[in-house]
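Repro case for the chain-ordering regression, as requested:
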Amino acid sequence: MSDPSERDTATKKRLMEIAKVWYDQIAGGEVPSITLPTRTKYNIEYDDESEVWKYGDKESVRNAGTAKSATHMLKMAYVIWFIKTQLQENRSSTLREMYYISEGWKQAKFGAQNESNYLIEDLEIITALQREFFHMRPEEDGASIFGPIRVRENTRRGMKEIHCQDDVGEAGYNIPNNVENVELVDHDASCVIAIETGGMFSRLQENGFDEEYNAVLLHLKGQPARATRRMLKRMNEELGIPVVVFTDGDPWSYRIYASVAYGSIKAAHMSELLATPSAQFIGVKPSDIQQYNLPADKLTEQDVSALKAELTDPRFATDFWKKEINLQLEMNLKSEQQAFASRGLDFVTKEYLPSMLSEIGVLKR
Amino acid sequence: MVLADELAKKQRSISVAEFFEKNKQMLGFDSPTRGIITTIKEAIDNSLDACEEAQVLPDILVSVRRVSNDVFRVVVEDNGPGIVPEKMPSVFAKLLYGSRFHQVRQTRGQQGIGISAAVLYAQLTTGKPTIVTSRTDAKNKAHTMSLVIKTETNEPEVLSHEEVDWILPHGTRVQLEFKSNIAARKKLIEYLKYTSIVNPHAKFRVEIDDESFTFERVSSDVPPCPVAIKPHPYGIELGVLKRMTAASDLPLKEFLVESFSKVGEKTALEICSSARLDPAVKVSTLDLESLNRLLDAMQTTRIPAPSASQCLSPITDELIVKGMEKEFELDFIKARTRPGNVYGGHSFIVEAAIGYGGKLPPEGSAILLRFANRVPLLYQQGACAITNAVQNVNWKAYGVSQSGLPTGPILILVHVAATSVPFTSESKDAVAAIPEIEREITLALQELGRDLKMFLSRRDRNKLQDDRARAICSVIPLIAAKVGEIVELPVPDTSLIEGRIMRRVVLKKSSAGGKVMIHIDNYTTKPQEISLYDISGDAAGDANIPPSFVSEMDGEYTKIWKFALASGEAFEVTYTGLGGGMIEMQGVSENLKVVVDLDV
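-- result from build under test --
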């Protein structure tokens, strides 16, 4: 489905199928209804096969027999109609734009942006398609990539082939919102390093780490957007490049890693597309704070309760995480990535990363 | 000895007035706010009691005016029978003077303390005398007196007395001046409002400073004046018995029969033998020990309960509903008057009412209105047996949430009418925990709870149906229009859904491939006797269910099927033909039927 117009036709067909079911239900004297998995944390299950978190078997039926459900379905009908029109006219819009457009939909108008986002996710689940197929894009940018990989992007101004080291500036190649418009052409990479902070991304670039080790540097920009996670997944799956995650040493950063590796609750229907189960965490680990005597801050109350919550989170139920989290609670300390600078600006690229990457078998020297 | 003599000089009897001066709280005068309410309450109690006795529809004026910074002038005026001038000083300025103290019947006031205590309170806070005007009939002039109580002797002192002209033919007007504050205002209006609920035959005109308003009467029947009955042997105490025997010159048997209710010759003899006393002995000669035995015998012998019908005057459920309706906007209201009952020789009747919804505050604890002998109880809600009984009802069983009191938009009214209401104290704020009374309250509330539950479930059902109807009639057609647009087909007809969901009988006629099909579903809950009229150019000779009747006119065939269709069942007939024409179904009421010709 790489041909966009073919893809749009198929998407349109799927959406129209939903509408047709309702059409037939109404024509047959039946109240229209739709079945969806229950989207709460009580219906999230770990899938051993794909190693990601997905929605379980619990389903709820939405039936237009009450005013509330009927209104919800009316909104869904409007959104389907809106997407269909958008696909036909080959246009796209942001989630926020659709929210504003709904102002004119009278009874089907959205009360809040959350509601429209949630509805788009419902449609993703029903059609088993990503919102990018609907030409719906999020507000936030995807992350940037810098490293030895060549991509071909189908842009509004035609097809462009870009080498993410040679053809881009220091800011790197910006991952578009719709990763499906990007073809991964070829690469010369040993690994992808997904980095939490911009400071560390620039440090690795400045020190030439990408060249020396043929590493693809990827700036996560905090909690990664879907496009970023999808890109990581594709680089890992299609090109077989190992992915490592390099973040600050605090509980929030561990959650960034978890969403990259295992998937999130909100987008559990997309886990198979978005999560990279083989992604490995390389730091900053609590044990690094101890081992390298990194400058550190005291844990806040929120940090402590977040760590404790992670101890009961099945995603962190491994010996590695239990040991590290307990150590952190004991030390009552956290450190940022840039804390390595205390041992010199080259320390992270000359010592820490090479040794870590060798340890986990990503670098073979 | 010398010391005892010294003490003896200081020991003297204190007058009742003096005692109450030092113990104001016992009578409900513990704060300035409370004082103003108690004063008005005592005056109104007297007015209502007097009007009832005279069988007059009460017209009561209450006026509160600030005369200086913290001094208020209170006037209560009624159109009652009035008081003869000779009695006026004692009624208003002598504590423990009253006409009803020894009577066994339901009255608001009882001990004759109330209004004189108010006079005393006014006198103590401002030093001003109370001015009373009263007139007994149109032939006599009205008398005005200014009165104070001599606290040392509990005797009235008349400071002035004159005859005056008055606009009212009969009635009484009391004017008191005392210290209070404006904080009483809200509570006062509350008191008047509640009083008017349980006295729906009374009209109150209220003037507070420059504001005036009226609580109208909704019933023009004066409640029958409760008839005094003789005390029941179970409700008597030794002191009373002593007084009664001392004042009687009858022999024991006759004394028992004459002085007590429900005691006949047989019961009297039974009491005498149980007390080991001669039925012929003169009661005035009985010593204390004998009296004790007599009392014991009176209270252990089986004696029928006193009758409640004459000595009590319940408001009646009908008038409670009227009273509540006039003061509150409610969606649901129901009242119950329980049959009469007895505790310790005293008759009582419990009445209760529940109001729900309307303009009541939707959240928080229920509003509880407590009444005793038609007087609202405004203080000490927590200490009252009524509150306790309300809290002990399991309201959740009636679909109402509860935390102690039930919560939500609920109003609960409980009225205890008794020949002697057992108050926890002289200030008459709370009913004491008497198991018989609590039980009656519980029973009344449980009965009402069941009614409320029915109302609530019906309301919820209606809500659900409304919600459904809204979804189906307004939203589903919009969905239909939109999906039609999406799939690029004509908008589907939603009347079928209407039929099914709205519980109707739905008829669908369609034709395809030279066959005509008529399909009827009975989605109602009742069986339907249906006559199906199908008028078209088709003869329907091969119909799988032959018509009950066929006629032809100008090539148009009228085919009629008559059949019964049970709830949930379907009827389907097919025949060869082209369809068209007209179709109609009779025997099903208009609002229950949906007819759809799918070919049109």
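Ordering looks correct now. Chain B touches chain A at residues 467-468, 470-472, 474-476, 478-480, 482-487, 489, 492-494, 496-497, 499-501, 506, 508 (CB under 8 Å).
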